[in-house]
Design goal:
With about 475 residues, the protein is an alpha+beta fold. It contains 14 helices and 12 strands. The longest helix has 28 residues. The N terminus and C terminus are likely disordered.
C-alpha cells in the first residue's frame, strides 16, 4: 500500500516560520526590551552564555526565541514546550508560570551565588512588619520565625512551583529537535486555528489528535536523539500532514457550500445518539465510504473524506479478530474495530448484541478499545458467555453490516504477534519461537497494551475526519446505559 506525504497547506506552513508571525509588532517590542535588559545572541556568545529568551505562548505550549544581535529574525526556536493534552485550567496556569520573565537576581559578595530581587524585597518588608508588630505587643517568638520564613519562601517557593509546572509540560532544546518540532507545531497551529473558527466536530477532533501527536513527538525527542527516534517521528509527521490536508479539504468544501464561516455558528456535525425515527438525516449507507484500510507493518492508513454528516460514535469501541479476508489485492483484513453502539443494530443478533453492549460499556474509560478477549476474561474465561449471548453469531452479523456498508469500521491487518496478543486475555502471555534459531520469546500484557495503544492512534486519526458511524435505527441499550 502506498503512503503519500501531503504538502502542507500554505497557511499551515506560515505558522511559526518566524517569531510572532501574526503579530510582528510584538516581536519588535520584545526585542527592544531584550536589548535593554538582557544578553542577546551574537558572535561573542559561547556555550556558557545564557541569552535572554522571548517566549511566544500558544494554545498548545510555547516557543522560546533568542534575539540575534544583528537585528535579524531567528529561524529556529531555542526551546519548544508542549502542554499536556486535555490540559486543565490549573495546568494552563503552569504554562504561563514557566514562560514568565526571568527573576532579577542580586549578587552578594559575602555569599556564594545570588539572591532573587524579590527575596531581598521580602526580607526588608518582613523586617519592617516584624518590628512594627513587636512594638504593638506581638510576641517575639511569633514575629522572628515569620521574619525568617518569608524570605526563605520567596527564594525557594518559585523553584518548587517550577518543578510542579514542568510535570505538565515537555520541553525540547537543540537545533535538530526544535527544527523538527517546529514543523509539527506549525501544522498543529493550523489545526487549532481551523477548530477555533468553527464548531464542527471534525475540526475540533483534529486539533485534539494533533495535540496528542505533538505531545508524543516531544516525548520522543526529549528522551532520544532525532536519528534513533526517526521512525516514530516520521510516522507522527505523516499523521499530522494527513490531518492538515483533511482539514484543508473540509474548509474548502465548507467555503464552497457556504454553510459556515469564521464567525458563524453551524449545527454540530455529531449530535448524540441513538436517534428517534425521523430525527436524523444522514447519507445513505450505500454512499458511505467503508473504512477498510489495513494496519500493516510499516504502513499507515490513507485519509478518506466523507461529505455527509456522521453520528457521534460512542466513547467505547469493540475490537474483534476474525478469519482473514481480502477486500483488495494483497491486503489482508483480520481484525476490526467498531463503535460500541453497532452492537445495538437491529440486524445484529438480539438480544445478544444488546447484552454484549451492556458488558462492553460497563465501567470503561472514555475512548477505551475493548477486545473480545477482554470480555471473555471478565466472563470467567468464557464460562459465562452463555449467560450473555452468542458472540460468534454477533461478530458474524457485524461483519455482514460492514460489508453491506450499514455501519462504519476500522479494518486492520495486524501482524501475527499483534493479532495473537489482542486475542489473548489481558493477563495472558504469548510465546513465539523463531524457527531459524529456535529461540523463544515471551510477550507480556505490556506488549498487548502497546498494540492497543497503536490501534488507538489509528482510530484517533480515523475519527478526526469522520467518526465511526454505528448505523441507523439502533435499539435502546439495556437499562438505558449508553457508552456516549
Amino acid at each position: 500500500m502506498t503512503d503519500t506525504l501531503h504538502t502542507p497547506p500554505p497557511t499551515a506552513a506560515a505558522h511559526h516560520a518566524r517569531p510572532f508571525t501574526r503579530n510582528p509588532q510584538r516581536w519588535e517590542k520584545e526585542r527592544a526590551r531584550a536589548l535593554r535588559t538582557g544578553h542577546v545572541r551574537d558572535h561573542t556568545c559561547s556555550a556558557a552564555c545564557e541569552p535572554v529568551l522571548v517566549h511566544e505562548r500558544t494554545w498548545w505550549g510555547w516557543l522560546a526565541w533568542t534575539v540575534p544581535g544583528d537585528g535579524s529574525l531567528p529561524e529556529i526556536p531555542h526551546q519548544i514546550g508542549v502542554l499536556t493534552p486535555a490540559a486543565t485550567r490549573t495546568q494552563r496556569l503552569a504554562l504561563r508560570w514557566l514562560t514568565r520573565r526571568p527573576a532579577r537576581r542580586i549578587a552578594v559578595d559575602t555569599l556564594p551565588g545570588s539572591l532573587r530581587f524579590a527575596t531581598a524585597a521580602v526580607a526588608v518588608i518582613s523586617l519592617l512588619v516584624g518590628l512594627f508588630a513587636t512594638r504593638h505587643g506581638v510576641p517575639v517568638d511569633v514575629t522572628v520565625p515569620a521574619m525568617l520564613l518569608a524570605p526563605l519562601l520567596a527564594e525557594h517557593l518559585p523553584d518548587l512551583l517550577d518543578a510542579w509546572a514542568r510535570e505538565h509540560v515537555r520541553t525540547v532544546e537543540g537545533d535538530g529537535a526544535c527544527r523538527y518540532l517546529q514543523r509539527l507545531a506549525a501544522l498543529h497551529s493550523y489545526l487549532v486555528q481551523a477548530a477555533a473558527g468553527s464548531d464542527r466536530y471534525e475540526l475540533g477532533r483534529s486539533a485534539e489528535v494533533g495535540q496528542n501527536l505533538l505531545w508524543d513527538a516531544a516525548g520522543l525527542v526529549q528522551t532520544r536523539d532525532t536519528r534513533s527516534a526517526s521512525d516514530g517521528l516520521i510516522a507522527r509527521e505523516r499523521l499530522m500532514l494527513q490531518l492538515a490536508d483533511q482539514v484543508d479539504q473540509i474548509l474548502k468544501r465548507t467555503a464552497e457550500d457556504g454553510t459556515a464561516g469564521a464567525n458563524q455558528a453551524s449545527t454540530p456535525a455529531r449530535p448524540a445518539g441513538p436517534y428517534p425515527p425521523g430525527a436524523r438525516h444522514t447519507t445513505h449507507p450505500a454512499r458511505r465510504v467503508a473504512r477498510n484500510q489495513p494496519l500493516q507493518k510499516g504502513t499507515l492508513p490513507m485519509p478518506q473524506s466523507e461529505p455527509g454528516q456522521a453520528v457521534r460514535s460512542l466513547d467505547v469501541y469493540f475490537l474483534f479478530a476474525h478469519e482473514p479476508c481480502y477486500p483488495a489485492a494483497a491486503q489482508e483484513i483480520n481484525t476490526t474495530v467498531v463503535a460500541a453502539a453497532s452492537l445495538l443494530h437491529p440486524c445484529v443478533r438480539q438480544p445478544d448484541g444488546a447484552r454484549i453492549h451492556d458488558r462492553l460499556v460497563r465501567g470503561r474509560r472514555p475512548g477505551e478499545i475493548v477486545p473480545l478477549s477482554t470480555l471473555t476474561h471478565e466472563l470467567d474465561g468464557g464460562a459465562r458467555w452463555p449467560e450473555v449471548g452468542d458472540w460468534e453469531a454477533v461478530t458474524e452479523d457485524l461483519l455482514h453490516l460492514i460489508r453491506d456498508r450499514a455501519c462504519d469500521a476500522l479494518s486492520l491487518g495486524l501482524p501475527d504477534i499483534a493479532r495473537a496478543l489482542v486475542c489473548a486475555g489481558p493477563r495472558s502471555e504469548v510465546r513465539a519461537v523463531d524457527p531459524t534459531t529456535g529461540r523463544h520469546r515471551a510477550y507480556a500484557p505490556a506488549d498487548r497494551i502497546e498494540v492497543l495503544v497503536e490501534v488507538g492512534k489509528h482510530l484517533a486519526w480515523a475519527e478526526a475526519g469522520s467518526p465511526l458511524w454505528p448505523g441507523d435505527g439502533l435499539l435502546s441499550p439495556l437499562n438505558s446505559v449508553d457508552g456516549s
